[in-house]
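Quick one, T. Sequence first:
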Amino acid sequence: ARDVARVILDQCLEELPHYRGLPEDLVADIARSVRRHLALFYRVTLEMGRPLDDDDLEPSRRTARERAGQGIPLGEFLMFFHVGLRVAWEDLIARVADDPRLRIGLLDRVAAVITNQQLLMTALTEAYVRESERLSRFREQDVDDFFRLLLAADTLPHVIETRAQALGVDLAEPCSVAI
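Structure tokens:
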């Protein structure tokens, strides 16, 4: 599983633009996530052949929330999982190529693979979107608060400058605000 995890990580770091040049600590976190998801795939999908349940999916949901907070685009985040499944499946096919019994056993798990990929992708997407929406509401509130500060007569200039910097607002740039 470790070699497969490395292949997945390397391919995604090469193919997915947002993942290029990430800090080493984030790459290490992503590598742990890849290994965790591979272990889940091998244990639940291939060995047990059962659908993923909420307990299985919670760490994946947590990962989706983290990636949303890190600003990783949803499409690239989900593509990582598609690449992962493709690489893992290709590795499995190569390993059972000469053993008809193992090939049949692997084919017997195709329905479980498809079902679990759908369950996983749904859980990831829902968790990511919810977190993005939550963060967006916070950002909207922060922007609203900032403009209230701008309109208040007693706001100190350094407070406005600090809040503008935190929001990425360039005070030197002219802008329009609808109230």
